[in-house]
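FAQ: What does the model actually see?

It sees only this:
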Amino acid sequence: MKSIAAIILAAGKGTRMKSDLVKVMHPLAGAPLIEYPVTAAQQADASRMVVVIGHQADAVRAFLADRNEIAFALQEEQHGTGHAVACAAPYLRDFHGQVLILCGDVPLIEAATLRNMITRHEQQRATVTVLTALLENPHGYGRIIKNGAGAVTAIVEEKDATAEQRSIREINSGIYCVESDFLFDAVARLGSDNAQGEYYLTDIIRMAVERGLNCAAHPIPDPLEVMGINDRVQLAQAETALRKRINEAHMRDGVTLRDPAVTYIDRGTVIGRDTVINAAVHISGRTEIGEGCIIEPGAIIRSCRLGKRVIVKAGSVLEDSIVHDAVSIGPMAHLRPGTELMEKVKIGNFVETKKITMGKGSKASHLTYLGDASIGSDVNIGCGTITCNYDGVSKHRTVIEDDVFVGSDVQFIAPVTVGRNSIIAAGSTVTKDVPPDSLAIARSQQVNKEGWRKK
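And it is asked to produce this:
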């Protein structure tokens, strides 16, 4: 098998997106569009890659900066796809093999499809193979022209096509496999004598045929896979298709989705078997969910790591948090970044946490704010408790050691430490450290003035 390189065309602005953000950086199921063809090329065994950048080049370069196999070719002015490939050619001067040409705005292409195209390319002993699809309405796409033997003889852009050619339903996806030596010689010879005045990459088909070289088509059954993203309507269509693909993969791996059509799971999410995810759940970022969990309706989970048998009740929001086994959260709880809950912790209704650790078996059942705190094991936090962690200038920590019982409506004025096995009386405002095994009461004395109401 020959060596494989890839060129990904990502220089265009994407005017029809009507956005300040370049098209290939628009997010799709948790990653920019450009991530998808790059990943597909890598999975198809491309050992070298050139991404052609132009509009907002720095943003695209920064996103892909950690990919050592990628070089960046700058196309300062966009004069067509042929010109874009010519810009990439100097970065592959010493490469001899097959070159995949992909589009940065075609995110649904799969690595298996690329591998199959390469196989067909080799079997047909082709110089150029183009990925094609049959469309009911091929408007806007270049048409595939074939001879009687089924070989490709030309690709005609719609603006240059005759009425008869426009009736052809087999379209050019813009994705190719080309022998490198021919490709780089051909793009150096391209002209711009066409309706757009651009250098069409499709003209390499004509040039190959003129030299007596074989050009093949590799049709695919699902046109969605080669759908380009030109506006936000198509972006939404691609999102729907991709989420369906993601959800079905999880279900085949043993995850129950109660209503897949309204379950939103980003690419890269890991979910253990026998986990049940209910409707209207959003899971995004680098999230991992263990086995046997239950995620109730309306929960939002971003960049979290959940252990086994975790229950996230309805309406809860979890962000950048670590949750160990058998924890119960919610309903309507909010875990903010930096939260870590150990085994069998219970976080109940309308509890908010931020930058805390909470030890095994501890619980805060309702209406509580815990921020910048270290809480030990088997601690009970009463309703209405607040760690007052901000003095107007700096944040301070509260430390509550093991086996502490905190009554309702308690305020901890940080920095403060509560020793193990202590009790904090309801209604207390704790401003000083509490020794172990103590009862702390910090509230004003009750005074009853009998008969005052009648006066």
